[in-house]
Structure formats: structure tokens, C-alpha cells
Protein 1
Amino acid sequence: MYKITATAPDYYIEVTPEALSLSAYNVASTPLRIRFWANDGENRNPYSAWLTLQVRSGESVLYTYRPSVAVTGYEYTWPSSQYAEADNILVVCHSNSARTVEVGRKTVSLVCENPIVFPRPETAWSSSLTFKNGEVIMLDDTVYMWCSRVAGNTSVNPKTYIANGTLPRVWAAYQNWPLLCTQMFLAQFAKIGSAVFMGDYMLSQYGKNSGGSTITDYRQFDPSKLGKAGCPFTPRVYVDWKTGKVYMDLAEVAGTIKAEDGTIGGFEIHDGYIGVAGNLTSYGFGLLKEFIKFSTSDGIWSGIGTNVLGMGQSAVARFEDYRTEHLDKIAMIVGSTGAQGFARDIAVNITGGYVSGFALKPEIVSTSKTLDRSVNVVCTINESAITITLPKMKQYDDGHLIRFKRLGGGDVNIKVGVNQPLEYDQGNIMDSNASVKLLSADGDAFDLVFIWGIKRSGYSSDEGRWIQFKHPRDW
């Protein structure tokens, strides 16, 4: 706050901010707010005065504003397209409308941000181009930089403009050294090739804007917006020399990587494991020295390793799904197909031990139908005759088993597919694509096993055979 006069009452000019900040492109961070106050020793009250506001360059006046009435305050919005050479604003307070009695003044400095040097992509100067503060272009082996906070250009090339001594000085010339050798180089900003050194950061001149498009305007780099929605420029590579953080869009690393914290693909890195806490009970993904596992709080647990059960028990694989859902749930899918010639498809090879809790997929049949290859137990409950067609088998179905049991009062005919005959009773062969009554009495039961390698002599088109294993009965 600035005191106007020492006589009672005291008058003050209040300006906010005390110094007006401008970007390198002449944009003010906030309006300039002016208030006039009178202080009688006990109270501070608004004071009506006759304002004169001047935008100046040194002592030279570029713009003057005088309202036609007395005011207690004024808010001045800085025009970004004007007064590029201005460095201060003068606020004068008068006590009369003729503005002959001055009772106080205050000067507001303009604090201007330094521009970021940016090479223009054009190889030649043209009067049709528009230059921003800090943009440079090469002309006759000399580098010329536009030095005005207001974007623009001149009617003649920068070399001629400088040679003529034209004002204002919007161009600056710099020697283009083909070779520069030095023992020490200190700079707040530098551009070497495609690498830009800017304060605490080194970054690539190439990056992406908020929409994901590739751009090269590294002047939009704002460290406070990195990783956030709407970030105007995310470099393909950047290094924060202050914190040690390194970011790369695409990295190929050869050699040793040692990481004890941070994230990888969204998973936390810890000393000794990646993902959730290094135990069996934590939910989520976990990669440990002993095992890898996935689990959820609603009943899924899957993992493989040296032991996925914990103390007192041992298992190298575990797949469980205890969720309550109205759909078919499969804890594990194992399959092998494609073996040719004498090779065989082996889905699971058990080299020892028993299978605990083993179960086969059953199906209750009451009408004629074709069985799905996933069915292994059939119980018939029909009261009239029906026909059950066996599924078409492939080479990888070698050894496929189907168990049959008649529980109803109706006969059951078994039909086979093309080129896959059925051998039943005492060596009888039922040709392919035919049917035979095999469940003719209540309680009858038998097994059918498909054998790929058996073919009838002279039947080159045979594709394996169904073999009946009868269950004897004493009724």
C-alpha cells in the first residue's frame, strides 16, 4: 500500500499485485487492481480520486487512460497483443477533475518471463511468417531471434532491419559458430541436437500433446502437468536432474536392471517381490521367488511355484474358483490337439499319485439327441424308444470314455458317426452311420471307449472304432 499524503486524513493507493507478471508472450497472470483509500486515524474508507494510468517504456508513454469520473478503484486488464516494449505502469491520483492537483503516484513494474529459444522449421525468412518471442531463424550464416513479447514480423528481413537501425528493436542477431570449443559451459537453457536442457530438466524436443498427437513445440513443457489429463506436452524422453526421475516413451535396455521400489505395468515393485504383499493371503497379483499367484477377495485363487499352499502342506499348482455365479465355471482348461502320424495328443501326463475328488461330466437323457464330446456319463430316463448319437471323434480323442446306464423303461438305440464303427457284444461290428439297440432292459449298463488306432481290414476310410465294455448283470 502506498501513502499519498501525510496530512489528515491520510490517503493511500493500493495496487494488487505490487509487480505485474507477464509471460514471454505478453500474457498477464492476473489483472492489475487499483484501490484508493482514506484513513482518518481510526477508519479506512474508500476514497474517490481522479485516476491517470499510463503504460510506459522507461519514461516514454505508450498508452494513457483517464476515466471521466472520479473512481475509488479500477481493474486494468493487460492487452497481450500490445505494448511489447513496456516495462512499467504508472498510477497517478489527482484530487480534482482537471487533474492539476496531484496527491500521489505509484509505479508498478512489469516482470517479464524470459522466452524459450525455439528454432523455426522454415529454411528461409519470409514476411508472411509470424514469429513468437524467442523463435530463431538462420539467414546468411547468422542466427536471428524475434525479441518482442508480441508475435509478429517485419516488412524487411531481420538483417536489413537491424542494419537500418529501425525501432523498436524486435530482432537480435547472434553469431553462428560452426565449431565451439570450451572447457566450461554454464547455461539455464540449451538445445543440442534434439535434446533440450531447461532448468532442472533435460527433454526431447519431440513429444505428444493432450490429444496424443506428435508435436515438437517443447515450449509447452510444464513439469507440474506431467502425467495429468490435458498435459500440453509430454516429451518422449525426459530426465529430472533434481529428483533423478527418468521417463522414456520406448526403452530398450541391455544389461542389469535393479529395482527395489516403484511400479512396472501398474504393479508395485518391492525388495524380493512384485505386486501385492509377499504372502499367500493378500489379494491381487504377486510375483515372488517361490511362486506367482493371482487372487481375488470373492473366491478366486490361482498360482504355480514351489509351494502354493503354505506351512504344513505342499503343492506346485493351485487353481480354485469359489465364486457364486449363475454360469458354467471352469477352474482349468487343458488341451492338446494337432498330433500327426503315430504321434499322440497328451493333455495331462500323470507320472504318479492318485486323483482326489475325480468326477466325470454326467448328462440325463430323456429324448433322442447327439452327445457333446464333453459328456462322459449318460443316464437314460426315457419311457419310449430313443436314439443317442455318439459324438464325432478326432485323433486327439483317443481313449475317450462314455458310460451308459438305463434307468427308464424305454429302449435306447446307439448310433455312430461316419467312418467310426462300433464293436459290441461278442465281436459284432456296427457299420458307421447306423444304430443298434444296446440298452434293452431296465438297469442295463456298459462303457464305450473310442480307440483311434483300430481300423477294419479293407476299410481305409475308417477313423477309429468305438469299443463296448459290458457290465455283467445277474437279473
Protein 2
Amino acid sequence: MTVSKEFLTFKNRLRHFDDDIEMVDILCTTIKRNRLENGADKLFEYQVPEKHPNISSYSIRQENRLLLASHLRTTVYSSYVKDVYEEVTMYLRGIVSEAYQNATVDPRRIIGEHKINMSTVDVLAGIRDGTLAQTVIDNMFQTLENERSTIALIDKTCRKLGLNVDSGVVDMAVNYLEIRHKLVHTDGLADQEFKDTHPNLRYTQENYIDLTYQTILSMHDAVFALVKALDEDAISKHIINPNIASTQTVTQT
């Protein structure tokens, strides 16, 4: 299957994030199954008080080992959600930029009524350096992101480029991408409206989003499917170019 350069970049970066998820799962499972030995004088074998003063301040109990592992897992899961969201945004920004450079879409359709304030010096510098178009596109995306609406970001990008993707594929990906807004703005605390519109997620008794290994795997699959669908449609309509070396089959990892 032919894919774009932007898709390959997205896929490769997502793979690195997936490695982090697998690694933390291995570490946490190892800590859980290898219980603390009786008479141990520290929580972890290679713990050094001078180098790890915070860890060394914990009492030597298996419960504290599990507590620290759980906190690490939560931090990595949270970072994964935020990083994947940023990668989707970078992919969308990339295909809009390429569509403009390829002159396959009317610039008026891409930019629409978006307005940007730039000094005359910056405009002339952008013209001289060839960066003016990218600056405008970046500013447009920043404005869309400020709306705090993932569905609006994807929908407006599709409309600007004339892309058509199955609404079910979009909705499934957005369902997970919207977790990022809660993590950034409320530290993961979900209000009732969010819980009602995201019934497939798990929540703690305190109404925080409970990120689990399965949630992360499901997010990966949903987001990968969305970007793959966007890429296929954009290439089929000659909006963006296929990567020269991408006659390979892209498999979901």
C-alpha cells in the first residue's frame, strides 16, 4: 500500500511511543511478581541513596514498590495520550502544508477567513526565506487547537482539503484523543458530560479517567486507523504525494 511521507513519520514515531508502553508494562509486571525479599535493606536492587534520595526515603515495603511502579505507569500512559495527540496534529498540519505546496487545493479554501497579524518586516522576511506560507498554516492550526475541540480540528482539516473519512472511524479516534484535553486542563478529572459521552472509558471513584493498558492499546488502534484512512483518501485524490519508497505494505503494529 502506498503511503505518504507524513504517514511514515507518524507511524515511526508512534512505534517509539508504543515501545515505551510495552517497556513500562514489563517493568511494572517484574516489580509485582518479584516480591521484596525478607530482610532487604532497600526497595530496588540498584538503588543508590546518594543518587536516588527520594526513592530511598520510602520505607522498605512491597506496597511502596508497587506504588512507585503504578505512578510511573500512570505518568507514561498520560504522556502517551498527549504525545499521540500532538503527532496527529503534526500529521494534519503536514498534509495541509503539502497540499498548499503542491497547489492541489485552492489556498483560499485552505486558509478561508483566517486572519493573522504580522509585521511588515516579518512578511518580507517570510517571502525572502520562503517560510511565509508555513507560518500562516502553523498559525491557523494553533487557532484551531485553541478551540479545544478535537473533532473540529479534524473536521475543518477534512473540509479544507476535501477529504472524506467514515464518521465511525473519526468518532472512535476522537473518543480517545479527547482524553488529552482532560489531562491537560483538569489533570484527568472528568465531569458528568464527558463520562456520558465517553462510556467506554474507566473512571476512578473520584471521577478521574483511569488509563489502563487496554485503553492505550485501543487508542493506538483507533488513531492509527484514522490517520491511515486520511492518508489513503488524500493520496487517492492527489492532494498529497506518495512517498517514493513506500510501495511497502503498511501493517498495524
Protein 3
Amino acid sequence: MSSVVGAAIPTFVPVTLPGKPTASARLSQAEARRQLGVHQNALSKLIDSGYLSLGEACVEAAARADFMSIESGRVVVIQTDVATVSAEDPSWRPYVGDGPGLTDAEWLDASRGDWHGFDPHQALAAGYALITLGSYVTGVIRLLQLELSRHDRYQIKHRFEAQIVARLTETTPGQPPLADPERSRHEVACGPGEHTLARLLGRRIRPKAGPQAYLWDPARPAAPMPHPTASAHEVAS
């Protein structure tokens, strides 16, 4: 299949999050969940993957990240998990999931498939996918063409040929990327006009229930979630 050329780059705007608390010196997991507005599953993903630590500076920086809404265009959003050894077909990718310690090649293969929940041709027309973990954008890939579609029980999953535009990596040893997303931003193949997408790294998108991947456009806004209390009503995943 031929690649889609000239896909419009979507535009985004920050979302004001009412009631966002100020960061505190406390670094218990309960306080980190309160500051970030996530439940334990999301916090564990961020820590286990290596994107976040419970250090004060890292939690404060991550708590300041804007939630984003999409203003124009379309983009695929992929809500992934912590990187693990692939239990599927390791001949084409050794890992599934997300982590800053993966090489670019490993991370790309883990991110470009196999996904369901959207029309692959609409995805190619959109041209890009945002990779997210625990509501944080950790990378952007450029979708070039559909590599294959396969049946998996009751679903049809899609795999794309793709390129990395930019991703978060651990550029400073011992410093998780969300402590300083600007410094941790690794622009792999960021072309003219794509810096808008690269600047999304370290920012946030409201998690969406359902399939891990979906097509996001202004008709399907990801509005900011209400901020949970320290002990209950935790809604971000």
C-alpha cells in the first residue's frame, strides 16, 4: 500500500485543570497520586517504566504538566503499558509496551502495532500517533503505511510501517524523563512543522476507556478529568 503524503499536522491547546493542587514536599505514593491526579495503577506504570520517580522534583515537574485538547486535525492516541518481553511473536519485536530504556528500534516496534479500535485508513490519513502512558505523552510516531491487518479472536489488529518523530528518553543518568521533559526530548526524525508534535512530550491527555488505541479529533474531545482527592475518586489510568 502506498504511504499517505501531506497529512495535516493537528494542533493542540492546553486545558485549564480546575483545582490542580500545588506540589508538596511529601513523596508518599498517596501524595504523588493526589498531586498527579492518577490512581495507583497509573502511578505504578509511570514508576515501573522509568518515566517517573517519587523524588520531590520529579513529582513537582510532572504535576505541572498541562492537559491538552485537540483544536484541529486528527491523530491516533495509543494508550500503552509498561515495557515487557513480548509473549507474541518475538521474531518481529522483542518487547511490547513503553519505557525510556528501550532503544529507538525496540520502542518503535513496540509502538507501531498491533492495535485495534480505529479505521487504519483514517489513521493513515491522520498521519501520526501519540504514544501515552499513565496519561503522559511519551512519544510521537509518523504512520507511513499499513504493514498488515490480522484477526485476533474477535478483533482485527493493525500494524503500521512508521518512523519516530520524537520520544522521551533518559538523557541524564538517574533522572526520569518526566523530571525534565524538555531536556529528555529525543527528536529522531522531526521534520519541518513537526516540532508542534514534539512539544507534546511530557504533557497529558485524558485517558479514555475502551480499546487502547483510538482516533482523536475535536468531535471527540478528551476533556480534563476532575482532580481526585488523596484517598478516593482516582480516575486517571
Protein 4
Amino acid sequence: MTRAQQETIDFVDECLRVLPDVVGDKVAKTCEGLVNVDVSDCGIPAWFDVPVVDIVKSYAEITDEVTSGFLDDYSFVKQQEELLEALKIGQSYEIETIDAMEAFKTGMMDIWEALIQYLLLRDRAELFYLEFDEEL
């Protein structure tokens, strides 16, 4: 690994370290996980050459997995509520649809914000790498 590559990885790590202060823990963790996977898989500087469309497709796949899990869980809980109601068994808690939809919306917005932060970080890292590499 070249010095420029190592310095860029250190730069990315520092950016990821402070990211929760900027966007919150959930968004930062999502962004960090995907950055770490892609940097590990591709390395520096090849990470900078991954087409944006491939990155967006990856996020779309993650979004599909997350939303499918949410919808499956929501459907299961609603079915259980209906079953308990049909059996005339009282419930101490019922899911409020509006609250569930609000949580769903928040989750979707977190994923999009993580994508934005990922792309911004990748751009900053590429500029850092190019500037550092030129100095050597």
C-alpha cells in the first residue's frame, strides 16, 4: 500500500469518526458500513472509479431488503392483532398505522441521507488522494 493510499484511508476513517455528530448515529453507521465494504473490496484508488449508478443500485438493494423486512414485520403484527381481536382477547397495545408509516418514512430518509454522505465522502476522499499523491 502506498503512502497516499494509507493517508487517504486514515482521512476516510477520520471523516467517518465525526460523521455521527453531523448526521446522527443511524445514518453514520449505514454510511460507514457501506464505505468500509467498498473500500475493502475495491481498495484506494479503485473505489473512486466505481460508477455512481452501481453505488445507487447497491443502496436500492439495501432499501428493498430493509423495506421488505419492515413490511413483513408490520404485516405479521397486524395479523396477530386481528387474530387476538377475533378471539376476543384484549390487547394492551396496538400498532398505530400512522406511527408505523412515520417510522418507515424516517428509515427511508435515513437511507437516502446515508447515500448522500457516502457520495460526498467518496468525492472528498478522491480529492484528498489526488492532492496527497501530487505532493509526493
